[in-house]
Amino acid sequence: MDPAKLLDILGNENRRKIIQLLASRPCYVSEISGRLGVGPKAIISHLSLLEEAGLIECSVDEQRRKYFNIANNMRLEVSVSPYAYTMALQNINFDREKRESSAVEKNGPASRDESSGLFLELSGRIRELKIRHEELTQMQKQLQAEYTELMDRCLDSIEEIARNSVECELLFELLKNEATAAVLCYNLRLHPSIITSNLMDLAERGFVEYTIKNNQQYWKIPEAGVENK
Amino acid sequence: MDPAKLLDILGNENRRKIIQLLASRPCYVSEISGRLGVGPKAIISHLSLLEEAGLIECSVDEQRRKYFNIANNMRLEVSVSPYAYTMALQNINFDREKRESSAVEKNGPASRDESSGLFLELSGRIRELKIRHEELTQMQKQLQAEYTELMDRCLDSIEEIARNSVECELLFELLKNEATAAVLCYNLRLHPSIITSNLMDLAERGFVEYTIKNNQQYWKIPEAGVENK
Questions:
Q1: Does the N terminus or the C terminus of chain B have fewer Cβ atoms within 10 A?
Q2: Strands (E), chain B
């Protein structure tokens, strides 16, 4: 799924509530409608949208009643900062088939004592994962703070080395991502001749360089220190 | 900001485009309108919504023209999986005042050579941060996959140890989070007497225990192994 598509879906409060409810347990339409205090018609329309997007799926129980559950395992990350707006959506595989076949490998049902021990062990591991998740999240937060601070300093430094405003903009663009001249023209809305002449000047002073990838010329900031001319 | 509020904001494609544009540079209303091909009236209404939420701020240039830029530094993480729907929003401090005062401490303007070296050094560090970010993101992905797999196994294990469906639901709820009896009643929509008697049975078999926090009794899965009765 496209991250933008997921943001469109999550932009509605009732859809968020439905997802939250289904993440706690599979539900019938009537249950969802009752829990949310929203008419079944509206719930059904949200459910079909979620189902089309592949976020939930529908099954039928013994009494032929339809129930819904989360079909997906994914992680969306959005960063908004003065120098970056990024969205990333990761799909996380969880292969139930594979897991079930490995469970079958065990020799028959476990004794009650074994089951108890296993449950407590597994719940301990889940607790550890939660702590680890919290640690990683803190590290990401720290990283984004450092990134913003570095970008701030880089902008000051660009102002010192750039000879005109086009150079400033070019260096700032390339700092975020390497780019072809065409992309730079488009993003900065400048004529190709202006982009090219400024890139040449910057290259001569060692502030940009290019590489060829997939037969295309990409401009970027050099990786190692260079001699100043 | 509430993560739900941010999701409401990001649920609109034009607002996402505005944020993306402002993250690349501060812009006037006319620029935003031209870039997005959306009338200025609609742009202004999106901008006031974003400004009210504290996501962007507005300044005035020398010609008294208003321009907008991102005012915030934050990270939103949403996980949707069969056993969890979590949203977390982190606000990341970036204290420009502090940074600027520390920049002043340096002795006067740097020479051109020093500036060039500094720029290349800073851009190298930005590159490193991007790689580190990618690594952390992969680790989070791996973690969520493990979490889902463990929850799958835990559910099987709960089915073996639980004596009825209420015990199943109680253990599943407590696996996700410790909770008071009141929260469990509310989430599972069961009568307090049913919740209490099942908790007592589970506690006797060593599958749940309680702690007192802020004068409230919280039920949870025990941390260490327990003797089976």
A1: C
A2: 27-28, 56-60, 66-70, 74-81, 84-91, 209-213, 216-220
List chain A residues with CB under 8 Å of B93: 145
| Residue B136 identity | L
DSSP assignment of B46-58 equals HHHHHHHTTSEEE
The answer to whether A76 and A3 have CB atoms below 8 angstroms apart is yes
pLDDT (tens digit, 9 = 90+) per residue, B149-188?
A: 898 899 889 989 999 999 999 999 999 889 999 999 988 8
In this prediction, residue B226 has a pLDDT band, given cuts at 50, 70 and 90, of very low
- A119, B158 contact by CB (below 8 A): yes
Q: Where do the DSSP E strands lie in A62-203? A: 66-70, 74-81, 84-91
H or E element at residue B36? helix B29-36
Q: What 8-state DSSP symbol labels residue B3?
A: H
| Residue A209 host element (H or E) | strand A209-213
Q: How long is chain B?
A: 229
pTM of full prediction above 0.80 = no
Distance CA A70, CA A76 (A): 15
**Burial bucket for residue A140 (CB in 10 Å: 0-12, 13-18, 19+):** buried
B contact test, residue of A13, A51, A78, A87 with most B CBs within 10 A: A78
ipTM of this complex prediction, to 2 decimal places: 0.79
The closest of B170, B174, B229, B168 to B204, measured between CA atoms, is B229
How many angstroms separate the CA of residue B215 from the nearest CA in chain A? 23
Burial class (CB within 10 angstroms; exposed 0-12, middle 13-18, buried 19+) of A37? exposed
Task: Return d(Cα A29, Cα A39) in angstroms, integer.
Answer: 10
Say what the pLDDT of residue B229 is. 40
